Sequence to fold (836 residues):
Amino acid sequence: MTVSSPILRTVARFALPLSLVVSAIIFMQGHNLPGGGFIAGVLGAAGAAIYLLAFGVERAARIQWWKFAVVGLCISLLTGTVQALLGYGFMNHTIWHIGSYHLPTATFFDLGVYLIVLGTLMTIFVELGMEDR
Amino acid sequence: MNTHLIIPILVPLFTAMVLTFFSRQPVLQRAMSLASALGVLGYVLWLLFYVDQHGIQTMAVGGWEAPWGIVFVADRLAAIMLCLTMGVGTVAMIYTFWTVTRVQQQYFFYPLMHVLMGGVNWSFLTGDLFNLFVSYEVMLISSYAMMMAGASRQQLRQTFKYIVINAIGSSLFVAAIGLIYATVGTLNMADIAVQTTQLTGQRAAMVTAASIMLLVVFSIKSGAFPLFFWLPDSYPIVPSGVIGFFAGMLTKVGVYSLLRVFITVFQQEGGELIVQILLVLSGFTMLLGVLGAMCQWDIRRILSWHIISQVGYMLMGIGFTGHVDPLIVNMAIAGTIFYVAHNIIVKSCLFLVGGIAERITGTQELKKMGGLLNVAPGVAGLFLVAGLSIAGIPPFTGFAGKFTLIGVGFSGGYFLVVAVAIITSFFTLYSMMKIWTYVFWGKAHESQWQPLSYRGMMAPTAVLVLATTAFGVFAQPFIDLASKAATDVRDPNNYVTAVLGQGAWPVVAEAKSDEADAVAADDVEQSPDAERRAVAVVANLTREAH
Amino acid sequence: MELMMATIVALLFAGGTYMILRPNFIRIVMGLGLYSNGANLLLITSGGYARANDAPFVAEGQTQFSAMMDPLPPDIILTAIVISFAVGALLLTISYRVYLDHGTDNPEQLPNLDEDEGDQKLQHLTPVPNVFEELSRQCADAPRENVSGLPVRTAHG
Fold:
């Protein structure tokens, strides 16, 4: 399933890296502003969707996207579980201070959410896009 | 802080995730599944004893305290349901070791089963209305996928129907949550109970309207009267083996939610309306369910219609709680809890026996089966016990459960519904006899039979048969436990105090400030006494019956 | 503002009901989408969006919170959106498969259940001779050329 339009292909070449960068920015700003793992994941997948429209799903179908979702779920739940095992209670979050930066443990939870959303959306795109199967 | 309450949710989820990476190694997958399920089963059994000894346990997720954050609450009812989930889940899982096909295992059968069990456990443990919605969705989405495992034509069609009806229910659930949040300003179940006691007039009516939407949602899930049509269509296509878990647990999650939400949580003025509606619906559910079963000639369809009819008994028990006498209310809830437990075990057992019969004869149609008594007398014995138990013949659990409920109905003066219940019971017996006659007696069509081994499948089924016999013969401790659980459900005081802390429950204090001081004191003194009396009455009756 | 929101919610639910009652799989899925959007709008209205709609993030030194929205309804909506999205994708996939199977997207034109057996006996009744034999076979010839990692539909596709 390829839309063979040169305009779309040219746009898609730039749209994919651009949307990935924007999704990374939105992911990082989710700490104390609107943003976060879910929106960033959707943005990244949207950029990838344009790319798939232009160049076909076959290239993306080589990757087992659902494994991203499973790994993401693992990361998210492990963030909560590690805190529970350390005695702070399930899903308690703390902030680590590394030099002048601070890194909340909630970032890892959000990273998991990002992977889940990206993996799920890409699985849906690829599976619905592969018509001839 | 009891962080361990997360175990029944987290361990199945983690197991599911790990198992997805081993979908090419069936033996390893099965071993890990079994180990995980047995571990959680051990934990929930311990939890039941712990909760029974030490009272309600709570856990605040993420350290956000009760009215603001999500809490998990384990009271006796939740612990009983957890034990039943994991028990029946483990048994059904062992049974699937013989029935699951290659395609199904590639479709993530065991991971989905763990997610399903985790979601069911979650819905029993949660103390937050929106979290209940999320747990429902976790449970439902995995059940959609399991229903489709194998993706035959019929499965896809029927799953579409099942998903659509449940998705409509989910939208109504979200809308009801929105209305409740707008009126009460909280979604924590204990906090809703506290807030709704003070509601009157329009706001109370608003909460009642929202709770009727919830009634629709829970009726869809539990298969109550006007909304049961999806059930007999969709259950026959569920893969054999896991159907035992589906039939036993999924509708009972709806019944549990009805008990929890309409008796413990919503305390507003005019909230009794729901209970009265349920009493009316229960009669129709029982009768129409069993009438539907009587005109079917497919073993799975008969048993599916019986699920509906049996849910009617539980709704009847909930309907009896509209009575003014707290003693009768208490016994009604206790009877409902006992009946739910009975039905989970026996219904799963019947479906598992039906699965064995299907496996031997290669068909689901009654008229093509026949003659199993000579070939597989053990299977016949298992079916006999389960069938007699569901029809309410002593000494099995069905008798104790029905006896308690019907006794409560008589002493409460609900004669019409009780009459319907008794008639339904006879029809159930007829229907079981029909299965018995066509499947086990008669001429064997051996030419169509499949050369499959079935003896191993009898072991997990026999565990459930033993359970229904044991709980029926030694019913006393279990009825005691159920009536203790019923006290927690009927009187939100314990629940609210455990979740929100001492002094959060406003009712007793208000009654004292009124002139009804003496009455309140009387009530407080009387209630444990009354429970003891009720327990003694039922105990005597059960003993006499034996 | 609240009256307008209530009207929109009512229209969405009415439209959703109309769409669900149409005999067409895709319209049913779209009707469910309208339903979930209506429920989400109801939630956002119940959170007091009309009165206060600032994002609920506290800046340093902030003392006034009255313009801030209640953070709970957006959370709930986000969860509900994700769930309805997942269910919608699943339903679309199923309706596409049903269309491939039966050549129609009209549920009323599907054959009766009794006539629908054909070559497709229920999959869970396919014989499995012996569990251990089956297990060893599964270990031996598990398909490896599967591109996306998801199980390929072997039955008829």
Chain C is about 50% helix and 0% strand. Helices of chain C lie at 2-20, 25-46, 72-102, 131-140. The radius of gyration of chain C is 24 Å.
